[in-house]
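User: Just a sanity check before I run the rest of the batch. Below are the structure tokens for the first item. I only need the designed sequence back.
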């Protein structure tokens, strides 16, 4: 049965049941259920190709499913942000909002008041007359969310609103999302990142069109199959397939009903799992056919009898692309120079010494000194405009420094030193019309290496799809090809810009294991990322703001001493409104609120006594925002 109701039954939320979607022979969704309750945020998590967009398009009414039930309000009561942001680049901010308001049938005066309110609160008011094409990525996403919120929809649907967005813009996006939920809207959003999911009240984890886990973050963790143990290094044997890297240590998933002692040996210590561990364990359970039951929160409408899909039926209906391995195409190895192993060098592999870069009257980088040593992963963090990209381009020798010195492998950057760099840009740097094998062969010929490198076993599926043009591969697989191309000549230095964007949690850990393997073999890595979750994988962090370094050290060292006030209450929307009115920064985390930079006593003065307030250690993201506050930035010497 295919159904679409104009309203849910009393007490029943919007959502889908037993949803099945296919594109010709490719199965995109199979038996998926999700409920989207008013006044809360539901997150759909998964990598590229997991089925997130298909699910949201069905819920928005722009895609007809093969079967299943869709419960949604009238289309006039839906706000939809597509992955493309849905903004016209040749219209100004004000013109985009006026056009959208006219489409919703809003009166001009009502639309103008609402647009002014939202743009001022989101910090877009100064850009009202700017063309959307001239906005940053984060500003465009905020504009897209505002456009979807103009008519105060009952259901707000957001497709990856924060992917590729810097932390500051991401915080503004989440403020808009929380405001919509506090106003009574049912909000559902797609994301590839678990730190986004932690902010949601309920989470659906998708993998290849099927549900891995569903419930509150705590329910997903409690429902994790088996157990997790922590060890200091990757285990040998079969246990390596069930292990993943977490920072400087490792986790091993122990399937239910087993001790793991037969192939692990020393099992380390029992680890308290978090959402990342639980999602990765569920993905491993699916891969290894030890399939768990999907945890469903109490009160969620169940899939109707007879419409649920068994795992055996799902596997039998896999698309030919998923069932039939693509014939492997050998990667031609064309040595141009003598192949070498990365060597542990005495000095820094990459170094800037008091570098400054000016573009006319604009100073993009000011007196910055950093160094990357062999055997370490250094994370480079900062909002858009902080100077990260300019610094990286100077380190690569692509633009000259106005002042100061840059050294690459102990000398000024040159074509010879750049041959020892493995670079993965945010745009991946692959040729879409070449196959994966041809891209790898081209990289091998240019760098004079071969397609064998530390951590190559962490890139599953790369060569099994080597005969397909890269443009036809899912984004996650494209990133694996880009990693393989960057690592094939065993570079001394890795420079990676947002290396795992769009990749599912398990795939992301595998890519980080690849980075770690190359570093353990003697390379050094400089990784630029917008996501604090990934910053935990780095040995050392460098945080930039307005062209200067404002913090450096390990994540623990940077966070040390940071405190936030946490508000617990069923009526979180009231507390959110009161804190906003008092001018206190507030963020949503499930059904709790976090108020960084404020003491519990300050928060209690604003809220009625019924709200529970406590102090808690701050996160890296909250410390990051403290460092970016105007007037609080202080240069850290190199």
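Assistant: Here's the designed sequence for the first item:
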């Amino acid at each position: 049965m295919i159904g679409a109701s104009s309203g849910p039954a009393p007490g029943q939320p919007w959502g889908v049941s037993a949803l099945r979607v296919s594109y010709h022979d490719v199965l995109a969704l199979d038996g998926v259920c999700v409920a989207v309750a008013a006044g809360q945020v539901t997150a759909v998590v998964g990598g590229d190709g997991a089925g997130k967009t298909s699910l949201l398009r069905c819920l928005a009414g722009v895609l007809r499913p093969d079967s299943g039930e869709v419960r949604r309000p009238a289309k006039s009561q839906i706000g939809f942000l597509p992955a493309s942001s849905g903004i016209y680049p040749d219209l100004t901010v004000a013109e985009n909002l006026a056009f959208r308001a006219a489409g919703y049938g809003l009166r001009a005066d009502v639309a103008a008041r609402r647009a002014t309110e939202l743009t001022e609160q989101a910090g877009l008011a100064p850009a009202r007359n700017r063309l959307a094409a001239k906005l940053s990525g984060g500003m465009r996403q905020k504009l897209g969310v505002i456009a979807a919120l103009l008519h105060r929809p009952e259901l707000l649907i957001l497709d990856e609103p924060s992917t590729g967005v810097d932390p500051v813009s991401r915080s503004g996006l989440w403020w808009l999302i929380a405001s919509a939920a506090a106003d009574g809207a049912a909000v559902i959003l797609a994301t590839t990142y678990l730190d986004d999911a932690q902010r949601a009240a309920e989470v659906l984890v998708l993998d290849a069109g099927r549900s891995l886990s569903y419930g509150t973050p705590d329910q997903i963790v409690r429902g994790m199959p088996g157990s997790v143990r922590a060890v200091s290094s990757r285990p040998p044997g079969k246990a390596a397939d069930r292990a993943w890297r977490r920072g400087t240590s490792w986790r091993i998933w122990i399937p239910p009903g087993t001790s793991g002692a037969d192939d692990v040996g020393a099992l380390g210590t029992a680890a308290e799992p978090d959402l990342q561990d639980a999602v990765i364990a569920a993905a491993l359970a699916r891969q290894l056919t030890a399939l768990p039951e999907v945890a469903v929160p109490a009160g969620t409408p169940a899939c109707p009898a007879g419409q649920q899909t068994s795992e055996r039926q799902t596997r039998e209906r896999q698309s030919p692309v998923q069932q039939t391995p693509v014939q492997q195409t050998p990667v031609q190895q064309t040595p141009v120079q003598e192949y070498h192993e990365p060597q542990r060098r005495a000095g820094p592999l990459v170094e800037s010494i008091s570098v400054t870069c000016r573009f006319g009257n604009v100073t993009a980088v000011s007196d910055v000194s950093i160094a990357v040593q062999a055997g370490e992963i250094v994370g480079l963090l900062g909002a858009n405009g902080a100077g990260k990209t300019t610094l990286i381009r100077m380190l690569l020798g692509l633009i000259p420094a106005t002042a100061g010195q840059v050294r690459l492998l102990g000398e000024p950057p040159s074509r010879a030193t750049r041959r020892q760099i493995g670079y993965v840009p945010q745009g991946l740097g692959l040729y879409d019309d070449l196959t994966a094998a041809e891209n790898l062969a081209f990289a091998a010929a240019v760098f004079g290496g071969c397609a064998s490198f530390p951590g190559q076993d962490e890139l599953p599926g790369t060569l099994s799809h080597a005969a397909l043009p890269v443009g036809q591969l899912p984004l996650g697989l494209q990133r694996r090809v880009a990693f393989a191309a960057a690592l094939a000549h065993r570079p001394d230095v890795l420079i990676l810009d947002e290396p795992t964007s769009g990749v599912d949690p398990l795939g992301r850990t595998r890519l980080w294991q690849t980075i770690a393997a190359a570093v353990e073999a003697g390379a050094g890595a400089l990784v630029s990322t917008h996501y604090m979750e990934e910053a935990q994988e780095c040995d050392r962090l460098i945080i930039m703001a307005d062209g200067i370094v404002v913090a450096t050290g390990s994540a623990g060292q940077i966070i040390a001493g940071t405190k936030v006030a946490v508000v617990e209450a069923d009526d979180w929307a009231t507390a959110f409104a009161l804190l906003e009115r008092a001018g206190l920064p507030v963020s949503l985390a499930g059904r709790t609120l976090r108020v960084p930079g404020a003491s519990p006593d300050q928060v209690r003065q604003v809220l009625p006594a019924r709200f529970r307030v406590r102090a808690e250690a701050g996160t890296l993201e909250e410390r990051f925002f403290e460092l970016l506050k105007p007037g609080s930035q202080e240069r850290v010497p190199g």
